[in-house]
Design goal:
Rossmann fold, seven-stranded mixed β-sheet, 8 helices, globular, 25% strand
């Protein structure tokens, strides 16, 4: 291993930072940093992964925590379904649902075509501070509530819920209040700016979590403008603990 790679890997493990912070971070480093923080507090057995994309978050968790027993993937975009069926999650069982998750059942168009895709329209006025990217791809998909799917499919209750849905976090949680009562930890991507039209402000999401007895205990990966450490913080992975 080259000296630079050794130093960079050591920095990541110890601090969560990496060399050349102004460049786009290494692939999946956000998953690695957030999950390392989570595992300092709790080691989950059943993951509910809402907004799975290509499954890298669950893959990273299974790699760092091989005792993970089950993963339920929820990803609405067709292009990621095959990957989710074969992504390496060690010995954990998997169930994959091509569904959007919200606070009611129905059908909605998801726009964006990648990890930044959303059921909400992107606010082009926020393009300068947005750390992701969106395309013109659009797909009509079914949406359901978490509580409804878990009841209908008779799924095991998760002890960890991870939600990364680009502006629809509050609606996902509203449709999963039953699961929230049973879960122990929730990982949410929080936005300090409303990048999508109709996105609920951060204070509403925090208020909901407080009302449902979840306490913010730690932060994972941070997204800053242009990936520079001194620039404005725009998004962060947040770790919540059920205090009941």
């Amino acid at each position: 291993m080259k000296l630079k790679d050794f130093v960079q890997n050591t920095l990541i493990k110890l601090t969560g930072y990496y060399l050349q912070k102004h460049e786009k971070p290494p692939e999946n480093i956000d998953c690695y940093i957030t999950i390392q923080k989570l595992l300092n507090h709790y080691r989950p057995t059943v993951l509910c992964d809402v907004g799975s994309n290509n499954g890298q978050w669950a893959k990273t968790l299974a790699k760092l925590h091989p005792s993970l027993k089950e993963v339920v993937f929820f990803e609405p975009q067709s292009k990621y379904q095959a990957e989710l069926q074969k992504v390496d999650i060690a010995n954990a069982q998997r169930k994959v649902f091509q569904l959007g998750i919200s606070n009611q059942d129905g059908n909605l168009a998801i726009k964006g075509g990648n990890a930044s895709a959303s059921f909400l329209a992107f606010d082009n006025n926020k393009a300068e501070t947005f750390t992701g990217e969106v395309t013109q791809e659009e797909e009509m998909v079914a949406i359901k509530t978490l509580d409804g799917v878990y009841q209908t499919e008779q799924l095991s209750s998760p002890d960890l819920i991870k939600v990364d849905v680009q502006g629809l976090e509050l609606q996902v949680l509203q449709g999963g209040e039953g699961l929230l009562q049973k879960a122990k930890y929730v990982v949410l991507e929080l936005s300090f700016e409303e990048f999508y039209q109709g996105q609920d402000p951060l204070w509403k999401l925090m208020k909901f979590m407080e009302e449902h007895q979840y306490r913010l205990i730690d932060f994972g990966f941070e997204w800053r403008v242009d990936y520079k450490p001194d620039n404005k913080l725009v998004q962060v992975d947040a770790i919540f603990e059920n205090i009941t």
